[in-house]
Amino acid sequence: MSMKIHVDIVSAEGQIHSGQAEMVYAPAVMGEVGIAPRHTPLVTHLKPGDVRVDPGDGKPIEHYFVSGGILEVQPHVVTVLADTAVRASDLDEAAALDAKRRAEDALAGKQAEFEYAKAQAELAEAVAQLRAIEKLRKIKKG
Length: 142
Description:
Elements: E1 5-11, E2 14-21, E3 23-28, E4 31-35, E5 42-46, E6 49-54, E7 62-66, E8 69-74, E9 77-82, E10 85-87, H1 93-108, H2 113-141
Parallel strand pairs: 1-9
Antiparallel strand pairs: 1-2, 3-4, 3-6, 5-8, 6-7, 7-10, 8-9
Helix pairs in contact: 1-2
């Protein structure tokens, strides 16, 4: 039996995942990180993107979209404290496309600096959602 690490993914709405995994992949601000059992302790910010949990034992990798947050790694526990977390299969492509269009429109009209920064953040989140949807679509075809 291979080594496992406990993984919790939670957001303000509640817990979305709790279980054992052989590997966890997350979109840290400085680049994607891979976490295996007995990983050195780490705390980092997450950017919008796809968190992947590999339960091992031949089971399929589970995909979750996070809009940002904090990743805490301890040798036997990984905790994702997400601003928003959704199972990737539950993402709404039409809503993400609409959010992307609205953010692009807001950027084109850039009025106040605050509104511009907010529009940039909304655009980054919408694009990350669309990437997660596309990855999931490729996996289902393959």
